[in-house]
């Protein structure tokens, strides 16, 4: 097998198409989102752009080819996520719901379930959204503990009746408050923590929005706290067996976890461009541009090296996840933890290097820092979830430190 880090002609095309879409639509969307104070109206600004992205086949790019989508490789996904996330990471996160919510469908769904739940996302029309309803307002790091998942699914004939509160997941409310097209619900059934897929017809009228969060970063994401009231979901929508929820849930967050490295790269890349421009053009009253100070050049050099390193880690992690390689869990966790924490560290260093002008709108590095601060805590916080998962891997009997790299 040949390993090459050069983009293929097809990947160059994908990058150009993603960049053109971002230039045409996402710059303006990001500016409009910044100007809108209301979280619901802000999120709804994305809908027309969302419909254009779906119409151009970008949503299909997140659905695996074997189930009818167009996702080809992890590197392809990384390229398009980076090109969009540098302008509007909130838009990408909103659109990427199927990446998490449908992952357990691919893993444990019957062929009939897969066909039914994936169908809205293959239509190339409209603005279909999916939510992975895992997080709860009282916390979710210990969701597999006896009291860790409070949402219940009570059997009633050939249905389950679901009640409980869910929080944070993008598009829990859908665009109009009647729920997303598909909601994968982590709930407690008689057989233990389980996953049920509710479709819009089950959710409409049974989702009460308690609050749309007004986020400090990723402000265009529609994340809400909702109460699910007597949502009747057919037993035929249970994924796998009752009690299979913990393993399916952990695996569901692998693709999005791996992608966090790419989101962090996008934030660092955007901020680096600003900081580099500043350092090479601004003298701040001295005799020459500030890059001539060794300490300033060191900050830029360290930042650039870290960006390159995290980009490659994220490519490798997404590639392993999409190929369902045994190294995927470990690489995805490193991409999440190392990527997100490097992002915050680099952004913080660049803010200090630029100095007070980082607080000036024309050099909006602090905006990138707001996005980067979210990455250690979303998709499973590093402390509460991701480092614990790494600990499990490291403690497993027979752990091989060379396996993830293929160098055993
Ligand atoms: C923009 C955005 C999008 C999101 N998308 C989704 C989504 O699609 N679906 C979804 O379900 N959620 C989503 N979330 C929520 C997100 O995934 C959180 O990471 C998740 O709710 C878990 O939160 P937490 O790890 O902070 O857990 P919490 O249970 O809130 O724990 C809080 C803290 O307590 C400590 N802690 C708790 N238990 C332990 C322990 N056993 N060991 C060590 N430390 C512990 C840790 O420091 C942890 O960070 C989103 C959030 C945002 C902001």
Describe this structure in words.
The chain is α+β, with helices and mostly antiparallel strands and 408 residues long. The protein has three domains: 9-122, Butyryl-Coa Dehydrogenase, subunit A, domain 1, CATH 1.10.540.10; 130-243, Butyryl-CoA Dehydrogenase, subunit A, domain 2 (Beta Barrel), CATH 2.40.110; 246-395, Butyryl-CoA Dehydrogenase, subunit A, domain 3 (Up-down Bundle), CATH 1.20.140.10. The protein is built from 14 helices and seven strands. It has helices at 9-35, 39-44, 47-55, 74-85, 89-95, 97-101, 103-108, 111-118, 200-203, 245-281, 294-322, 328-354, 365-374, 382-395; strands at residues 130-133, 152-156, 159-170, 182-189, 192-199, 207-212, 223-234. A four-stranded antiparallel beta sheet has the order 2-3-7-6, with no helix packed on it. The longest helix has 37 residues, at 245-281. The chain is globular. The two termini are 16 Å apart. The mean pLDDT is 95. The site of flavin-adenine dinucleotide has 25 residues, from strand 3 and helix 14. Flavin-adenine dinucleotide binds at residues 93, 100, 132, 134-135, 139-142, 168-170, 218, 221, 223, 374, 377-381, 383-385, 388. It holds the Pfam family Acyl-CoA_dh_N. Keywords: FAD, Flavoprotein. This is Acyl-CoA dehydrogenase.
């Amino acid at each position: 097998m040949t390993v090459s880090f050069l983009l293929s002609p097809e990947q160059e095309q994908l990058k150009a198409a993603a960049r053109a879409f971002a230039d045409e639509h996402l710059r303006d969307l990001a500016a409009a989102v910044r100007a809108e104070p209301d979280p619901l109206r802000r999120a709804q600004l994305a809908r027309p752009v969302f419909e254009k992205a779906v119409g151009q086949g970008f949503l299909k790019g997140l659905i695996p080819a074997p189930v009818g989508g167009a996702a080809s490789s992890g590197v392809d996904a990384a390229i398009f996520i980076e090109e969009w996330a540098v302008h509007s990471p909130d838009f990408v996160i909103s659109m990427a719901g199927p990446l998490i919510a449908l992952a357990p469908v691919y893993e444990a769904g019957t062929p009939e379930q897969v066909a039914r739940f994936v169908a809205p996302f293959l239509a190339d029309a409209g603005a279909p959204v999916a939510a992975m309803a895992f997080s709860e307002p009282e916390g979710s790091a210990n969701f597999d503990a006896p009291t860790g998942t409070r949402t219940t699914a009570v059997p009633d004939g050939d249905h389950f009746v679901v009640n409980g509160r869910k929080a944070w997941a993008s598009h829990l409310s859908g665009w109009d408050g009647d729920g997303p097209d598909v909601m994968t619900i982590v709930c407690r059934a008689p057989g233990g923590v389980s996953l049920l897929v509710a479709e819009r017809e089950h959710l409409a009228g049974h989702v009460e929005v308690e609050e749309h969060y007004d986020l400090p970063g990723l402000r265009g994401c529609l994340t809400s706290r909702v109460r699910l009231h007597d949502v009747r979901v057919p037993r035929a929508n249970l994924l796998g067996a009752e009690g299979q929820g913990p393993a399916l849930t952990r695996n569901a967050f692998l693709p999005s976890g791996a992608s966090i490295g790419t989101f962090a790269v996008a934030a660092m890349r955007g901020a680096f461009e600003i900081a580099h421009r500043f350092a090479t053009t601004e003298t701040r009253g001295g005799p020459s541009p500030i890059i001539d100070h060794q300490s300033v050049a060191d900050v830029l050099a360290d930042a650039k090296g870290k960006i390159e390193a995290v980009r490659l880690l994220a490519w490798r992690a997404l590639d392993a996840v999409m190929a369902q390689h045994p190294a995927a869990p470990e690489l995805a966790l490193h991409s999440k933890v190392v990527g997100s924490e490097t992002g915050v560290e680099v952004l913080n260093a660049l803010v200090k290097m630029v100095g007070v002008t980082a607080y000036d709108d024309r050099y909006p590095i602090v905006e990138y820092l707001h996005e980067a601060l979210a990455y250690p805590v979303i998709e499973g916080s590093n402390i509460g979830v991701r480092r614990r998962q790494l600990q499990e891997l490291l403690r497993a009997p027979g752990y091989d430190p060379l396996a993830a790299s293929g160098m055993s």
